[in-house]
Amino acid sequence: MLLLAAAILLISAAAALGYDLLRADAPSPAMGEAASTQPIALTEVEAEQPTAIDAGKESPPAPTPEPLPTATATETPAGEGIPPACIPPDDWTIYIVQPGNNLYSLGERFGTDVDTLMRINCLNTTTIFIDQRLYVPGPVMAMVTPTPFPTVSLSDTALAGLPEPAGESAPAAAAEAAATRVPGALDVDIPERNLNIVLLGSDKRPNSGAWRTDSMIVVSVDLENEIVRLLSIPRDLWVYIPSHGYNRINTADLWGELAQKGGGPERVKQTIYYNLGIPIHFYMRVDFKGFMKIIDTVGGVDIDVECPLPDIELTSGMHHMSGQEALRYSRSRYSTNDFDRGRRQRKVLMALWEQALTLDLIPKIPTLWKQLSDNYQTDLPLSQVINLAYVGARLKPQRILSRAIGSGQVQSWITPEGAAVLLPKPDKIRPLLDSYYNNVAAENLDTAEKVRVQVLNGSQRKDAQELAAAALRWGGFQVTGTGVAKEANQATSQVLCFSGNLEAAGEAAAMLGLSPAAVQDMTSTESPPGAAPAADIEIILGRDYDPCRR
Question: Does residue 68 contact residue 153 with C-beta atoms inside 8 Å?
Fold first, then answer.
């Protein structure tokens, strides 16, 4: 979120929201969530890998680029008669995994054993993918080339027109890409004044041969108007990955790294540009340990939890969270779906920004950048981080906009292999992005800034006034105080307007999900002598106020 330079570290670190402290055997996602097919007796490491098949069970098409020696599993000295790990012998060739194949049947077919197949192919599990390329002994086999699914309406032409990153700065590459848009790519009008950074949370673990990007958030900084936009991309979005084919967007980093060491981020940039039309200038990627360390370094974050999360025993209300607690909050999925999880991830980003503002971190950025360098990877230069820090220091909460590609822009689809994914609807995504990136007047975001609001809890809901106050602050309102109403357990909420600014009162009501009928004009009401209203608007929350509106 690149709001405060330390927040670039912090917020980029928050991309690690994709890391899962919850075990793979946690309760399954709520109905309607597009999730990976259930793992079959997988280890903790294996459970985090892309959806796969075992013993002949099918999975979504996942043609795997030829493994490189650099993508090695744990090295083991090669003994006599044992081939070296991850290096195929000269007399081995490539075989494309077909439905019904497993390592045991392939070992018998090609005259070898499972352990040797795993060693040569850098596998740390017997789980293999349909359309995966495996080295096997024997003569050259006829290769089966998987074809992209015609159900996806995006063009299946390669992204050959995109510039190669080698020797170029990322902004220059993105600018050239914008000038030579590849036919078939989604055409979206993204203003050139935006600096676009993708935050990646990878669940890659030591000695793991495969991983996913479980969290992907595009942070767009409008340097001219000092507006920051956060855009969550669903991890199960079924997209065209350049030089690979169709797959979930959360596998783009993996395929890029397997094709060329260090090539994952560029593949992600190309994939986002091709499918969403957003040119990405920089990336930041962190692991879960780095995320927790950074959160803990700033003393934790304060999160307004609107909805209880029973799977992690978290009640609604205001919570101060450590790095591990924030990670679990952002990863919980038992009673929610992937869209709600993306919303919570963006909340953690904004909480990081708030916390960073209180610590006066700008002078410490160079030191922090160096000290925490083992916890993230990025192509952002330090000079750019410092420039963004000053933008973040001046930023107002209402100028941080939050959006997601949600249920209205995708459609659930089960692949022929049985995997639940989300198909993008270009005719719905295009207007969403065009509106989000263009139709926002900076001055309109500040209209509520001078409106004073007091929030009282008459609902008997714990911390209701604090949750409402947090929402109003992010909307730009000046919250002058919170408390408990004189009458408890009121049925309906009231929005009492003492200033005559009924438009602002209506906006406050809408922000809290209250009925327009709750707004009352109090300008003609006489106050007791010497008792001036404490705010322009007084909100008394009743039982109809529900902060948990997913």
Answer: no
> What's the Cα-to-Cα distance from 450 to each of 498, 504, 533, rounded to whole Å?
14, 10, 15
The architecture that CATH gives domain 5-23+158-287+362-443 is: 2-Layer Sandwich (3.30)
For the stretch 120-151, pLDDT in tens is 876 666 767 666 778 888 763 333 333 332 23
- Using the CB atoms, write b or e for 157-180: b if 16+ within 10 Å: eebeebbebeeeebeebbbebeee
- What backbone phi and psi angles, to 5 degrees, belong to 133? -90, 125
Dist CA 105 CA 116 (whole Å): 13
| pTM exceeds cut of 0.70 | no
CATH 3.30.70.2390, domain 447-541, yes or no: yes
Parse the chain into domains and list their residue ranges: 5-23+158-287+362-443, 447-541
* 217: Cα separation from own chain's centroid: 4
Check if the beta carbon of residue 60 is closer than 8 Å to that of residue 421.
Answer: yes
Q: Position 395: which residue type?
A: L
**Pick from 198, 177, 199, 197: nearest CA to 188:** 177
